[in-house]
Amino acid sequence: MKMTSGWLELRTRHTFTIARGGSAQWKNVELRLEDGGLVGRGEGAPRSYYAETPEAALSWLEARASAGGLPAAPEELRRESGPASARCALDLALHDLWAQRDGVALHEWLASRYGLRAQKRWPRTSFTIGIDAPDKVREKTLEAASYPILKVKLGSSDDLALLAAIRSVSKAVLRVDANAAWTVEQTLDLSSRLVELGIELIEQPLPKHDLEGYRALRGRVQIPIYADESCVGPEDVEKLADAVDGINIKLSKCGGLEPACRMIQRARELGLHVMVGCFIESSLGITAAAHLAPFVDVLDLDGAALLAEDPYSGATIPRGEIHLPDARGIGAVPTAARG
Ligand SMILES: [Mg+2]
User: Fold this and answer.
1) 300 C-alpha vs ligand 1 centroid, how far in Å?
2) How far is the CA of 98 from the centre of ligand 1 (A)?
3) What confidence tens digit (pLDDT) does each residue in 62-91 have?
4) Is 121 domain-assigned?
5) Domain boundary among 104, 138, 172
6) I want to staple 182 with a disulfide (CB 3.0 to 4.6 A). Which of 89, 100, 205, 283 is the partner?
7) pTM
8) In this predicted model, what pLDDT tens digit does every residue of 168-189 receive, in sequence order?
9) Ligand 1 center–CA 48 separation, angstroms
10) Which domain holds residue 266?
């Protein structure tokens, strides 16, 4: 099997700002596996918050290529130890190959291999509005007018002003993500206004390790709370069961589809809702994640829709509806400009 890895440099249309800061430039890693006339592709998004760097992710992939002996089945992926984003690129490229070899789309392969039950109606994805000045937020909301669900990044100096700016021009379903910026008291103070504004869910209000704080919010906030930063991999699902209503799974955070499918199964057993989210990623990573749509409750897969230029084409999200490519495997291909 031939293994080629490299950078995937991405630029967003607007500077994308969350509670921890913002950027318009993002560096991901990509991996191409060639085997028996088939090409499998994977992407990983290394993020410093999770103590990962693009350099470490790429060197792990390069070292992995020279070591050889790649996993022949999903269970063998559990033996890989390295940055989650790099393991994600490897996991995606292998799943892409395995599904193509079996002649089916990735979501069909996942359903049968991991015993996941597919729903007839797939959830729609939200589109994210990053933190900005209220007039800029209003402008971004108008640009996003075709999306019926917006996810609003909060943890700014005046969160209610941002929500008011959005509500002044949009009737969309709103979800909020504080990216760990609030305290228990702030969350309780804001929650009655959030209920009045019809906020559908709150993502990660409290710091990553504040599970006590999450338990303190139980029964006191009338809006479902989802853990994102607090839920990195399969080992985190169990301990969140009595603290939150749902978890946000991201392929680059947990290490790919194999751990993601285990997390979905465990969350179901524990009665947790499941969201699939993303980082700023090309349509390669986003399309792989979009294949999880049949198995989850909530989607936040706008990472490629926020890009100025997308080096891959694959799933699209018109009006928030997930449209997967008609192809075997993941089905994402490099755009013509990229060659
Ligand atoms: Mg989040």
Assistant:
1) 9
2) 30
3) 999 999 999 999 999 999 999 999 999 999
4) no
5) 104
6) 205
7) 0.97
8) 999 999 999 999 999 999 999 9
9) 15
10) 127-338
